[in-house]
Amino acid sequence: FEKYIGRVKVVPGDYRNLKITTPEDLAIARTILDSLGKE
User: Fold this and answer.
1) Is 29 exposed, middle or buried (0-12, 13-18, 19+ CB in 10 A)?
2) pLDDT (tens digit, 9 = 90+) per residue, 13-25?
3) What are phi and psi of 29, to 5 degrees?
4) What is the C-alpha separation between 13 and 30, in angstroms, rounded?
5) Is residue 31 included in any domain, yes or no?
6) Which domain does 18 fall in, by range?
7) With contact defined as beta carbons under 8 Å apart, do 20 and 26 qualify?
8) Is the pTM value of this prediction over 0.70?
9) CA-based nearest residue to 16, from 30, 5, 3
10) In 3-state terms, the chain is what percent helix, strand and coil (to 5)?
């Protein structure tokens, strides 16, 4: 990756910031959204 794009950086972020690409990702997103409604 670095060969084509450049150095890769890791930055602080929120674990709830996720890309949904699989059914499992969708289940995780639903769980997160459900928990936000209970706060």
Assistant:
1) middle
2) 887 788 999 999 9
3) -60, -40
4) 19
5) yes
6) 14-39
7) yes
8) no
9) 30
10) 40, 0, 60
